[in-house]
Amino acid sequence: MTQLEPPVSPTARSPLQAVADAVARHYKEQFGRGPQRCRAHFAGRDAILVVLDGTMSPAERRLTDLGEGERVRGARSALQRAVQGDLVAAVQEVAGRPVQHAVSGIDVEHDVATELFTLDPPAGSADGPLSASAPAG
Question: What whole-number distance in Å separates Cα of residue 137 and Cα of residue 77?
């Protein structure tokens, strides 16, 4: 069972590659630097996890090396919040499903960023957005 619509032609990109490309393009446009590596994975039927390696600028790496990693993390988080709507719109367009939630993170020590997107269930699905969940509490 695929979570996103399959490519319309054999030469089209896979849906996950299209999501990874959209997120990498967003990073390049918004932060001035695209990732060295970007991959997208399904995290269940209604979630996509994107892992980006090598997104930090030389100045951000230098600050981290000087013990200012929390400042870098805080600045990145603020920047990501400011442009999150653009990223969500890009993922929705590529995924063909509305994004319910988007969560960004960065490990400044290892220069790894993550983007997690939870999606609305596919059209016609009776299940909730996260079909198997543990009770709260």
Answer: 28
